Amino acid sequence: MSRRQSLLWLAAGAAGLLSGCDRLSPGGQPATPSFKGIDITGADYARGFSLTDFNGQTRTLADFQGRVVMLYFGFVQCPDVCPTALTRAAAVMERLGPRAGDLQVVFVTVDPERDTPELLREYMAAFHPSFLALTGNAEQIAQTAKDFRAFYKKVPTGSSYTMDHTALSYLFDRQGRIRVALRHEQTADDYTADVLALLDAPVP
C-alpha cells in the first residue's frame, strides 16, 4: 500500500465519521477543534497499544493519561523520513515551551529485528530526552500496526534491507482517545497547532 493509498483510506474513514456525528453544540458552535491534520475523532481503530519500552517496561496508552500523545511508526536505520519526523517532533516540543511536558512523543519500531532497546534509547536521546521508543516481537509489532491501519514492509537492499512504512503521526487527546492523523508533509507549526488544540480542548 502506498502512502497515498494510506491517506485516502484514512480520509475516507474520517469522512464517514463526520457524516455520522453532530459537530455542533446546542448553540450552533463547533463542539470539537478544527485540526490541520485529518480529524479521525471517534475512529474504530488506533485505540491503543501494549508494547515494551527501551527500559523493558510494558507501556500502554493509559500510562500517559492527562497528556497528549503523538505516536509514529518508524525504524532507526531509516535514512530520511524518520529523522525528519523526529526532528519535527523536537521542534514541536520547543514551540510548546513550558507546556512541552504535556506532550509525550512515542516511536514504535517496525524493525524489531535490528532495533534493540539500547539502540532505540540512543536514537531517541539524539532528538529529545523525553521521547519514548517502543518495541516487541514481530507478532506484537504486526498487530499494533494493523490496529493503527499502518503499513510496513521489509524491502531487500543488496545484502541488507530497509523498511517501507506509513509516515503518519497519530495524536491522542488527554483522555487517551484517537483524534488526529498528521501527514508527513505538514509543518512543525501545523503539528503544534493540533497539539495545542487538544491541550486546550474542554473535557466533554
From TrEMBL:
Gene3D superfamilies: Glutaredoxin
Any one GO molecular function term: metal ion binding
Keywords: Copper, Disulfide bond, Metal-binding
Domain Thioredoxin: 40-200
Chain sites annotated for binding Cu cation: C78, C82, H165
PROSITE patterns, sorted: PROKAR_LIPOPROTEIN, THIOREDOXIN_2
InterPro entries: SCO1/SenC (IPR003782), Thioredoxin-like_sf (IPR036249), Thioredoxin_domain (IPR013766)
Disulphide bridges: C78-C82
PANTHER family on file: ELECTRON TRANSPORT PROTIN SCO1/SENC FAMILY MEMBER (PTHR12151), LINALOOL DEHYDRATASE_ISOMERASE DOMAIN-CONTAINING PROTEIN (PTHR12151:SF25)
Family: Belongs to the SCO1/2 family.
Protein name as it appears in the record: Thioredoxin domain-containing protein
